[in-house]
Amino acid sequence: MTADRIVDVRASFVGRDDPEPPAAGKAGRRGDHWLGGKVANPMTRYAEFRDSRDAGIGADDGGTVVVEVEAESGAVGVWTTGGLAAAAIIEQHLARLVKGERASAHTRIWDRMFASTLRYGRKGLVLHAISAVDLAIWDLHGKVVGEPVHALIGGRIRDSVQVYATGPRPETAAALGFAGAKLPLVWGPSEGEAGFRNNVALAREARAAVPADFPLMYDCWMALDVDYAVRLAHAVEPLGFTWIEEPLPPDDYAGLRRIRDRMPPTMTLNTGEHEYTAAGFRLLCEAGVDVIQPDLGWCGGMTEVLRIADVARVYDVRVIPHTCGMPNYHFVVTQPGGDLAEFPVLSTDGVSVAPQHAPLFSGEDIPVNGWLTVGEAPGFGLTLNPDMRLVPAVPGLPGVPGSRRGGGVDDQGQ
Ligand SMILES: [Mg+2]
């Protein structure tokens, strides 16, 4: 018997009939959340989806999924992802590749998951599922040995990291001490010159609401084309905007190069929250982007972001990860160049600092005066809220081997 031998991998939904489902963070987004309002996105060109991002892209991914990985010792590592489809990949494909492995065998387990899903994976939802399992295993590993993940991945270089705020209220971000404020771009190219002028007017309003030297950024969420992005960058650069983010659909590497070549030299071109694996980020580095923004919950997890960071280092490209919560901060504090991280202001009104995964998890570190201090609790320091009623996300199909009801080996003891 080995204490860190993995004996179970579970994907569960948070009970949908809970009287108080998660109220903050992605887990509990409601229709009135600022992120669900009018935000420029790839569906903006369809008039019926123009005024609500959630209407066009289903931003909550179809429900919060809790991933639990249990060791022989009884220790449980946790993380979360979204949607029934990811849960099905975890339970019906990945789980059997993980059970029996040791929680410390990160690169081996990652390779088993990635190689086994190559025929339908490599990017997107499969990588979301792999990332969730990988992060839960890192959390488990830390809990088994009593160490925080930042210690397991090489040791932290700094105790605290400065964070910028993503949200609709830059004046609040400035008042709360954040390092800067990133605004969602509201109007897309299909909304013409009037929309462009509105975007610039909003940028001007933001500048007027904060101190003159407070950094501002525009998040364009895959909504633009090359010419629009270049025009936007030149229009907001005099207003002290320091970067534009993700202006193009993720596969348009050549377009990113053309934007970078025509942007003001004082601004950076950031992107990557919808890119996957070190192979994908190599293409972004070769395209000349200044900052890559892997999301640890999507790009392949902690195991893969360490390899992405190696790629970025040899290209001399900065890494400022996309949101993700505690795994992000455990990673950043171990990186030589990791002096800035994102903190999404996920309260519904966008004016208060709320933990990113509350009330699903407790134990998240949150920023104080714009600095987030990463703690010493084992794993990612997270505890699943015992009040959450978890229900199997994939109840299984009769007669399907390996499913929870299906007559396979997993049925033992069910
Ligand atoms: Mg973004």
Fold blueprint:
Layout: E1 6-14, H1 53-57, E2 64-71, E3 76-82, H2 84-98, H3 106-116, H4 124-145, H5 149-152, E4 160-166, H6 170-175, E5 181-184, H7 192-209, E6 216-219, H8 226-236, E7 241-245, H9 253-262, E8 268-271, H10 277-286, E9 291-292, H11 301-315, E10 318-319, H12 326-332, E11 340-344, E12 361-362, E13 371-373, E14 383-384, E15 390-392
Parallel strand pairs: 4-5, 4-11, 5-6, 6-7, 7-8, 8-9, 9-10
Antiparallel strand pairs: 1-2, 1-15, 2-3, 4-13, 12-14
Helix pairs in contact: 2-3, 2-4, 3-4, 4-11, 7-8, 8-9, 10-11
Bound molecules: magnesium ion.
Magnesium ion binds next to loops.
Give average pLDDT, whole number. 90
Q: Which CATH class of the largest domain?
A: Alpha Beta
**Total number of distinct structural domains:** 2
* CA-based gyration radius: 21 Å
The class by helix and strand makeup works out as alpha/beta
In sequence order, what are the helices and strands, one letter per element?
Answer: EHEEHHHHEHEHEHEHEHEHEHEEEEE
- Can you tell me the overall shape? globular
Structure write-up:
This protein is α/β, with parallel strands linked by helices. The chain is built from twelve helices and 15 strands. The protein has helices spanning 53-57, 84-98, 106-116, 124-145, 149-152, 170-175, 192-209, 226-236, 253-262, 277-286, 301-315, 326-332; strands at residues 6-14, 64-71, 76-82, 160-166, 181-184, 216-219, 241-245, 268-271, 291-292, 318-319, 340-344, 361-362, 371-373, 383-384, 390-392. Strands 4, 5, 6, 7, 8, 9, 10, 11 and 13 form a nine-stranded mixed sheet that branches. The chain is globular and about 60 Å long. The two termini are 22 Å apart. Residues 219, 221, 245-246, 273 line the site of magnesium ion (MG).
